[in-house]
Amino acid sequence: METNGQANGLKSRKKDNSDGKDNLWSAILEEVQNQGNTKLPSNKNVLVLGDNETGKTTLIAKLQGVEDPKKGSALEYAYIDVRDEYRDDHTRLSVWVLDGDPGHTNLLKFALNEDTFPHTLVIFTVAMTTPWGLLDQLQSWASMLGDHIDKLDLTPEQRLDSKKVQTQKWQRYTEPGDELEPAASPMKRSSRNLADELAHDDDDDAPLPEAVLTTNLGLDIVVVVTKTDYMSTLEKEHDYRDEHFDFMQQWVRRFCLQYGAALFYTSAKEDKNCDLLYKYLTHRIYGLPFRTPALIVEKDAVLIPAGWDSMKKISILYENMQSCKPDDYYRDIIVQPATRKSGGLREAEVCAEDEQAFLQRQLAALQAGTPAPRADSPLRAAQRTAAQLDGTKIMGGGTPGNEGVLANFFNSLLYKKTGSPGVGVGVGGPRADASPAAAAAARSDAAAELDRLTRAKRAPHPAPLDLNASDC
Questions:
Q1: Which residues contact 242 (CB under 8 A, 6 or more apart)?
Q2: Fewer Cβ atoms within 10 Å of its own Cβ: the N or the C terminal residue of the chain?
């Protein structure tokens, strides 16, 4: 009996060991299967909307790590490489950039449709280079996006679930460091599982705070204010003060509350908040960790995650507003500067004459016998010749092309002086056919005549050297 009992115990232990091994393998297989389900999805999209010159292409290039952005037209496509360091996984995040021209809004259907709607995050871009247009641009693009979503063929259940997800994401926001789950928990969660969990959660959450998600589009939204490095220029050239920037910020934050959006102030030029924006997008889309708290101290590097803000926190900005009130009309305080005019006086506009009319007028003048442009008059020719005598040209310092003109001028003077065409002298000396006495007289007369002309011509200037003085 004892031997049988020992044998039965041995069999029982072997069976337990076998069951333990089976359970271990089952656990390993289940873990591998779960890890396979939490791989980064490849069907996620980002849609970028904003006016032209708001830095959309530059912003996406910065998120890609590209130094030389290539600007396209109409509807641009790009992608961002996303890597999960915890799970050693990577994927590509598709990015659609719509042109700021309203005429291209019909292309939105290719980027946001019934299939991509549950997997899309929207970025609204506005630029600090045109602060007077921030609010109008945001409201315009949000209205356009809302109209497009209304036209999508979504079931009422799909619309309701997407709005419920956005509401619960806002309510369940926690400050970094206040999470109840372990720090490694993001490894075990994916955005897909999180969305399913929120959509099917029937718990009654507390009502939303004041002014939050009053317009729920059912999409994740991030408002990005670009080119914040231009704030210093606004201060220097347009006399902007801190209260102006606070007035703008509180209006933009109120817009973000209305649509449940996050807010980022970025500068690609100074590389402000661009890396944090990338991390926040991967957190919002893929559930990767994001542990940066809200940043509101530096006016050109504001960062407010969705779910953090409230009207009470916004009201802190009111304390700095001395010359305006929070509810003042935006464009009454942030006024677009008038176009500058040179000198304060408007210059007369000069209209060019039609080419054909000009040619017709010239033809009529020619047919009427109007004389053509005349050659230089004898007076102008004499003035030009006299000008050639100035300076060192009289001493033979002129160009070789002027020697003939000077020789003719001297010969004409000598001809008038002596009254005989047979006696003359050139620049180089007397003519070969002149007698020695006549040549000497000619040289003397020429020197005297040149000396007289030179003194009369150049009275204010120092007296010139006598030509052929050594021969006299």
A1: 299, 320
A2: N
**Residue 77 is inside which H or E element, if any?**
strand 75-84
Q: Among 112-121, 196-205, 256-265, where is mean pLDDT lowest?
A: 196-205
Identity of the amino acid at 84: D
Dist CA 261 CA 225 (whole Å): 13
Tokens standing for residue 86: 């915890």
- Residue whose tokens read 């305006």: 324
Count CA within 13 A, CB hemisphere, residue 169: 27
Closest CA to 72 of 53, 99, 103, 46: 99
User: Phi and psi dihedrals of 265, rounded to 5?
Assistant: -95, 120
CA angle at residue 48 from 47 to 54, to 5 degrees? Answer: 180
Average pLDDT over residues 283-305: 94
Single-letter code of the amino acid located at 465 = L
Instruction: Enter the tokens of residue 28.
Output: 């390993």
Element (H, E) at 157: helix 156-171
Per DSSP, the three-state class of 300 is coil
| 420 pLDDT more than 80 | no
* Cβ proximity of 148 and 217 under 8 Å: no
CA-nearest of 391, 387, 442 to 413 is 442
Q: Are 255 and 157 in contact (CB under 8 A)?
A: no
Q: Which two tokens stand for residue 129?
A: 């280079």
Q: Give the model confidence (pLDDT) of 379-414 as tens digits.
A: 555 566 665 655 444 444 444 445 555 666 666 666
Check residue 182 and give its pLDDT.
Answer: 44
Res. 179: pLDDT tops 90: no
Q: What's the rounded Cα separation, in Å, for the pair 415 and 310?
A: 108
Task: With a cut of 60, say whether residue 1 has pLDDT above it.
Answer: no
**pLDDT tens digits for range 83-114:** 887 778 889 999 999 999 988 999 999 999 99
Reference 169, options 142, 208, 215; nearest CA is 208
Q: Are 396 and 427 in contact (CB under 8 A)?
A: yes
Beta 220-226 vs 120-127: how paired, if at all? parallel
Parallel, antiparallel, or unpaired for β 220-226 and 262-265? Answer: parallel
Do residues 62 and 250 make contact, with C-beta atoms less than 8 angstroms apart? no
Return the amino acid letter for 403: E
CA distance linking residue 117 with residue 379, whole number of Å: 89
Closest CA to 46 of 225, 259, 285: 285
Rounded-to-integer distance, Cα 167 and Cα 161, Å: 10
Sheet of strand 303-304, all strands in order from the earlier edge strand to the far edge:
75-84, 89-98, 45-50, 120-127, 220-226, 262-265, 303-304
CA-based end-to-end distance of the chain: 164
